[in-house]
Structure formats: C-alpha cells, structure tokens
Amino acid sequence: MLNGEHYYNQTLKKTVAVFGTIFNNIKIVRNGGTEVRVPIAYGPRKKFLARIQSPSLGAGNAPDGETIALKMPRMSFEITEISYDTASKLNRFNKRYFPIAGEAGKYNTTMQSVPYNIGMQLNIFATNQDDALQVFEQILPLFAPEYTIAIKNLEGPNTSTDVPIVLNGTSFSDEYEGGLQDATRRTIIYTLDFTLKVRFTGAIREQSVIRIVDTFFYPTIENRDEVKAAFAYGYNNVENFHITVAEGDEPPLDDSDTITTTFGFDYDSP
Hints:
alpha+beta, STM4215-like, 6-stranded mixed β-sheet, 15 strands, elongated
C-alpha cells in the first residue's frame, strides 16, 4: 500500500488458474469401458519431456533400483508470451467506481484497465495415438476458434470480466527410440497455442464523494488585476454557482440523483 493505494487483484494468477481449470476434467475411455482422468499441471514442456524420457528423475523416496514414471496421457500448460493489445486500447482517463460497504460517502476508484494478450501453450502427452486423440478431440469443439469465459473480481470488487480464449493453431510430433516396430519409449505430443485477452487493473484509491462545489465565472474580466478588483468590491461582474449533491446519492451520478444548483449565492458556503 502506498499513499492510500492498494492493488485488489492478481490478474495473471487468476487467468492461469482459470485456463487450467477448463481442461482439468478431461477423461479417456480404455478397453473395457474404464474411464481414466487425464491429469494436468503447469510447467514447461521441456521439463515434462525430460521427466518422461528419464523416469528416474524426481523419484524422491523411491526404493533403490526403482523408478517412478509419469502417468500417461497427461497435459501441461505454460505462459509463452505477454504483449500489449494495441487493437483493444481504451481511453486511459476512464474511471470505475466501487461503493465501500458500511462507508457512506466513500468509494473506491481505479483508472481504466489496460488490455494485454497472454500467449498460453497446452501440451498433450501420450504413448499411443488412441489416448492422444481422445484428449485432443474433446478440446477442439470448444473453440471455433474462440471460447469466452467470465472471471470474477478481475477489474475490481464485484466485477465480472469476459476473457476471450482464442485457439491460434495446433501441431503434432511423434518421438520414439529404436525402430518403429519396437520403439521402447514413444511420446506423442499434441500442442495447442492459445491467446487470452485480459485486462490489468492498476491501483485502487479510496475517495470521498464530492457533495459541494462552488464555481465562479468572470464574463467581463480579462486580466488578473480585474479579478482582484472584482473580489475586493463584493464579487462585481461575477456569476457564481453553488452546486450540492443529496446525501443519499452515490457515484456514478445519473438522472435519478438529486443535484441542486443555486445562482448568485453569498459566499458563506461550508
């Protein structure tokens, strides 16, 4: 917190969590009708490949001479790029207002959120084509090529922001050791590249509602000396306005709120 400012959300963390949640309930059917859930975890593709090709890595407390292999099929995902979304640029001076529960006359405000594109890569690892295709073909129908989800509290308290997820393309690789017929370690990988269109929100500031405004207009005054003279002689040639907002009205104000304007008031405003 700095000078009354604080940051409400963790946009990147929430976006990554929601992306992984989309694919966390995919299942495949093995011979005999048995359903098997496909696990998913965040991590670099190279890390999972190294773990698959060398199952003894990360065995932890496994007994000597034993290895622990990763369950296949499985999925991994990772952030590949973060770039500014110039096509979705918005007016940076826009503000959003959020009432504070139990605090009459106060509210939180934040400037316009900033649009960014987050590149995300999803990898499907399998040892045979049947398993890989079952996973792959459950994902493709969701994206045509875009799928939109709503994320709560992304741009402030009690907000809901639509985040489009665009499938940019897919690729396939089949890696194995030994001959084609007797491959001892075969890894089939389907790679799907996505773009998430998100918005990052800056600091949130606590402010009080401005309920009284006094303004002065000088229609016939052209220089500083005349302004001083006008005030010295009882606001001659000064058109003044006193504007007040009803106590029960909260920002942002609209036609349903009560705003009172008084012309030509004596300067005893509080």
